[in-house]
Every structure is written in structure tokens, then in C-alpha cells.
Amino acid sequence: MHTQVVQERMLISDQWQHGQQSIEVIDPGTNHVIATVPAATEADAKAAIEAAKEGAEIARQMPIHERAAILKRTAEIVTRDRELFAQTIAKEGSKTIREARSEVRRCIETLTLSGEEAKRLHGETIPFSQMPGHERRVGYFYRFPIGIIVAITPFNDPLNLVAHKIGPAIAAGNSLIIKPSSFTPLSALRLVKALEEAGLPKKIVQVITGHGSVIGPTLTKHRDVRLISFTGGYETGEKIARSAGVKKLAMELGSNSPTIVLQDAELMEAVASCVSGAFCAAGQNCIGVQRIYVEQSVFNSFIQSFVAQTKQLRLGDKQSEETDIGPMISEKEAKRIERWVEEAKEEGARVLTGGRRTGAYFEPTVLTNVSPSSRLAKEEAFAPIVIIEGVHSLTEAIARANDVDFGLQAGLFTNNLTAAFSAIEKLEVGGIMVNDSSDVRIDAMPFGGIKKSGLGREGVRYAIEEMTEQKVVAFHLPEHKI
């Protein structure tokens, strides 16, 4: 059956426009082209920045109640069209239709929170008289918009992670240029159209599609860009940081997330949580469970139940309501993880289930006896892969959990408060989920990591703080004479 290919446009300045060249958007499940988007040029990137200068002034002058109202209306439009948004996510990316609907719900929450937080842009009073010689001074600080923001978003959450850039940027009174992943640009384009329908003035938000190697340097190096908000891989983040110059960076760069299961844990709850955390979105999740460390006394029981539940997962058509796991984002990525698994096997690892590839589909895979120095153990797999190893103590588990260059989130299962607080103190991560796997996030919480996992924090309120600057005001009062 012939599928009509939609020719989408990008929004630069106040015009939706085609490009001289285009990029094909491919459904990784069928390998069919479902749309094309413009391949923007360096000139397009410069034009977007010039328009963003005007947009920044428009946004800065917009009253807070208008910012909040636009975000609320956008959330209502996404709610109205939620199935269309879900179908878009499921067609262009890896998520199943059920996972896509969940992402749409989170997008609605993110936009709603952004509208609410716009009204909470508070400052603080400063007691200047705390310092001798300043007895007649009073002051405060308030937050003002940073200006032009460039946001570069990944393929794995093509709608909600865009909302996590757009919502706080508008709430804070900034202009924004979105550069979505070339794998999954359609969700971002649809969300920006919803913002237009909600009444957002032109030039405040633009969306430019294209190859990062062509337009990325122009967007990130430009002196008028004041903040780069990037979600993606460490290597790309490092290149951006080296080239950006003196400007603010907010980066979430992935992880290799551990979860620890102690002998006193509710074992079946731990198994179910870790299976979900390891394999949702075909494992392409920055806080997905990649390594599990289980105390030896319950190791065999845990791993038997884990493998049994993994084998029940259904791999297949993303549009089917029965499917649990869809394809990886491309056959190239599936071949990469296939090589990693083969390398691990050559180093002595055992595959307990899975390990086979068909096109872009990779079976949910459980390994044990993986060398601590292998790529699967050290790097971010971003695939439906999990390593399970036995440990003799919490101390050993923490040491092994920390023995990577990443530190985004970790999970811990225990009913021992002393053990929990010990792990909270010693795990080198930005978030610890107790009696949950590492794969837990709400859109209102501060989200980010340490080490190679990034800089700064997302989560609506905390992103707004990153997207604003503080201005201090002090009054030197005349001496009172009565």
C-alpha cells in the first residue's frame, strides 16, 4: 500500500517555510518514509537568531498572566488532539502507542506546570544591614529573562522533552529556537503549531530542522544566544561546551543507571519495577535501568523471576495495543548494541534471554557475568539491555554502582532505613529512588546529574531558574530626622 509522504515545513521568523533540501523522516518499525522536513542551512540558522532577537523583546514585555494563559491554552489544545499527538510519536519514533499516550499526558502536565510556575517568579529581600556600614541600605533581587535560548532535543521523548524547553522558556519571558532530533522532528513541529493556535506571538518560538553538523555551530556559538539547553549524548555535549563560548549551559547527557536490591527488599515488586525500568521505550531512556546489583542471598530468586517476566514482554508493531516493546530508533543503533553484546560475550558474559536482532528490533536482553570494564558495564547502552550481578553487601553494591563516569539517577530496594540513608549519602548521582528503580521522574522535580551526566537541573521550576538571571537592587536611604 502506498503511503503519502507529508512535506513538513519549519518555522523561521514568522513564516513556515520549506528548504532547498530535505531530510526523510523514517518509521523505524517499517523502514518507510512518513514525512520530509527541511534541511536548514547556516543562513537559515542566522535568520532564526535575528528573528529571536525581536522575539526576546516581545517575550520580555509580555505580562505574566498572558504567558500563563498561552501555556494553559496550549495544554488544552494538546489535550484535545492527544490521540493525534500520540500517533505522531508512535510513527516517527520507537515508542509503542501506549507509551506514546503516556508521553502526551506528561507533555500536558509540563505545559500546565509551566503556566503555573510563570506566576511564581519571585525574588527575595536582602538584609543589607547585616554588614557594618550598610545600616541605611535596603534591597532585594528579582529575576529577569535571559534572552535567546537555543534548545536541542533528542529522539527518545520527542514531545515532552520539547515541552520541557518551551514551557519554562515562555514562562520566564524568553525567546527560543528549537532544534529537534532529525529522527523525530514531527512532534516538535506539531507542538509549535499548537502554541501558535494558543496565541503565542510570532518570533518568540521558532523550530528549525536540519543536520546538527550544518546548523549546530551557528546556533551554539552565536554571541546573542545566552543559554543552550541540550539533551543528548556526552560526546555532542562536550563539543557544544567547547564551542559555545561564555554563555550558560544546561545539559542532560545520559547515564548508565544502577539499581540495588538488598536481601530484605520486597522482591517481586523490585523485579516488576526493574523490568519496566529496563525495557520501556526499547531501553532508550536516560534513566532506564542498565545495571542491577542484587545481594547474593536473593540473587537466584531475583534473576529467575526477572528473566521469566522479561520473556513475557511482547516485541512488535508499535501501533498494536498488545505490544510492549517497539524497535530501536534505527537499524544502525540496533547493530551497534548487537556488537556490544557480542563483545561482552567474548569477555565471558552470559546471555540469559534475548540478544538477537531483526532489523531495528532488538530483543529485551538480560546478561550476567559481564566484565566491569566492558562497554556494556561502563557506557550508556541506550538499548533494551540490562546487566544483573550478585554482590555480598551494600558497600560492594555502592562501590560498583559508582564505578562509572555517569551519575544521573539510581534505584534502591530495601526496608532498612539505615541502609537507605547510607546509600543516599554515598551514591554519586543526582537522584535516588528508594523502593523504586532508577526509572522514576515527575516533571515538577529537579532533574539532572553529576559527572558526565550533565550540568544544571531540568524540571519546570528549576529550568525557569536556569533561564533567568538575578538582578540585585539596593536603596541607600537618607538619614531620618524627626
TrEMBL record:
Family annotation (CDD domains): ALDH_y4uC
Keywords of the record: Oxidoreductase
Keyword Metal-binding attributed: no
Top-level lineage group: Bacteria
Function statement: Part of the sulfo-TAL (or sulfo-SFT) pathway, a D-sulfoquinovose degradation pathway that produces sulfolactate (SL). Catalyzes the oxidation of 3-sulfolactaldehyde (SLA) to sulfolactate (SL).
PANTHER family associated with the record: ALDEHYDE DEHYDROGENASE
Lineage of origin: Bacteria, Bacillati, Bacillota, Bacilli, Bacillales
Domain Aldehyde dehydrogenase: 16-473
UniProt-recorded name of the protein: 3-sulfolactaldehyde dehydrogenase
SUPFAM superfamilies: ALDH-like
Recorded catalytic activity of this chain's protein: (2S)-3-sulfolactaldehyde + NAD(+) + H2O = (2S)-3-sulfolactate + NADH + 2 H(+)
EC number(s) given by UniProt: 1.2.1.97
Coiled coil, from the record: none
Gene3D superfamilies documented for this protein: Aldehyde Dehydrogenase, Chain A, domain 1, Aldehyde Dehydrogenase, Chain A, domain 2
Segment forming the signal sequence: none
A Pfam cross-reference name: Aldedh
Family: Belongs to the aldehyde dehydrogenase family.
Alphabetized InterPro entries for the sequence: Ald_DH/histidinol_DH, Ald_DH_C, Ald_DH_N, Aldehyde_DH_dom, ALDH-related_metabolic_enz
GO molecular function annotation: lactaldehyde dehydrogenase (NAD+) activity
Top EC class of this enzyme: oxidoreductase
